[in-house]
Amino acid sequence: MARRRWKRKSGYITPNLVISKKELLENDLFLNPVYDDWADWRDGFRDWFRDFKLIKPIPSRVYKYMSEDVRAKRIRMNQKQQRLLTRRKARRLI
To answer: Of 23-32, 38-47, 77-86, where does the model show the most confidence?
Structure first.
């Protein structure tokens, strides 16, 4: 059986069970993985410009070609995610 992470990256998912595993084994039935690219559709959309859920550095080779607005927004969103990260860590310690 494939690991969940491997299935997420490749697009293969295992369908949800409707009957119990015991009945599957008794009747010699198999669950085959199915290709479904929309199961975790957000993985494909994690590009540099539109996704602000990750803290991403600004590469120096791209820095001079970026507009000032995009660069300022990326810095602002990185700072926001850093603040959220420190809040989550502090909340865990309480």
So the answer is: 77-86
Cβ–Cβ < 8 Å for 34, 13: yes
Q: Given pLDDT bands bounded at 50, 70 and 90, which one contains residue 63?
A: confident
* Sequence-distant contacts of 55-61: CB under 8 A, at least 24 apart: 55/81, 55/82, 55/85
CA distance 82 to 57: 12
pTM of the model: 0.49
The label of the residue with tokens 């970026």 reads 66
81 alpha-carbon distance from chain centroid? 16
Identify the helix (H) or strand (E) that includes residue 4: helix 4-10
- φ and ψ at 38, to 5 degrees? -95, 0
Instruction: Using CB atoms within 10 Å of the CB of residue 78, give its burial: 0 to 12 exposed, 13 to 18 middle, 19+ buried.
Output: middle
